[in-house]
Design a protein that fits this description.
This protein is mainly beta and 250 residues long. The chain has three helices and 18 strands. The protein is globular, with a radius of gyration of 17 Å. The two termini are 31 Å apart.
Length: 250
């Protein structure tokens, strides 16, 4: 798999104001799709950043959030919410002449408030559904209980401290987290936000796996099998995940 385009020159963190945080245990599974297939995932006005070859990454992030809290000024208000979530994202996209960003195409969540806020404030196209983890498999069902998507991963290295890890997929994720995150509301309004993935206290290990889209999930997300290579994919535990306040998309 080729390196992710337009990630090497990511700007330093500019210190956005964050509104929520969790601790995340789960997987970052990077898959490679033909560029034409990835372009079908993008709304009008968004394009893939230039990159080598005829493929482009699509990232599936799935697992469980706990230690949830709302952040307001110096206050950290614990919510007690523990919930599963799966995010389908396209890195290295551009809107107009804007800087490279990550587009959140779909999110499946097990938390009602996070689902509502993700749709109303962030344009993340979130759906409240049931999800479960069975051993090395993560299963998403739709509102009717039918299978929508499932992922199976297999570790290929032992757990190690993220702070001293040289996993290529981890380095790409750290860089990716410095980019703006774009969402598009149902009325076409663009929203920009930031993720912060804090790996200081986390542990990671590389994984390989398969993500299967088992039912139509929207334009460009028809049933298909996606392979996640160990070099670009990893499992994490104890990662701090923060989300910034939403802003009007540039």
């Amino acid at each position: 798999m080729k390196p992710w385009p337009c990630l090497e020159a990511a700007p330093p963190d500019t210190g956005p104001s964050f509104v929520a945080e969790t601790r995340f245990q789960g997987c970052f599974a990077t898959t490679s799709w033909p560029r034409k297939a990835v372009e079908r995932l993008l709304p009008s006005g968004l394009r893939l950043a230039a990159g080598p070859g005829g493929s482009h990454p699509v990232v599936f992030t799935f697992g469980e959030h706990d230690q949830s809290a709302v952040l307001f000024a110096a206050l950290r208000l614990a919510t007690g919410a523990v919930f599963p979530e799966l995010v389908i994202a396209v890195p290295s996209v551009r809107r107009g002449d804007g800087e490279p960003a990550t587009f959140v195409r779909r999110v499946f969540s097990g938390e009602p408030v996070a689902t509502w806020s993700g749709n109303v404030h962030y344009g993340f196209t979130k759906t409240l559904v049931a999800m479960e983890k069975f051993g090395n498999s993560f299963v998403v069902t739709d509102e009717r209980g039918a299978l929508a998507l499932h992922a199976t991963t297999e570790p290929t290295s032992p757990w190690e401290r993220a702070a001293s890890s040289a996993l290529p997929g981890l380095a790409a994720a750290v860089t990716l987290a410095r980019r703006p995150v774009l969402g598009c509301k149902s009325d076409g309004t663009w929203v920009s936000s930031r993720f912060e993935w804090g790996f200081e206290d986390a542990e990671v290990r590389s994984v390989r796996g398969v993500v299967s889209i088992d039912a139509p999930l929207g334009p460009g997300l028809e049933p298909r099998t996606c392979h996640a290579a160990a070099r670009e994919s990893f499992e994490v535990r104890g990662m701090r995940w923060r989300l910034s306040w939403p802003e009007a998309g540039a």
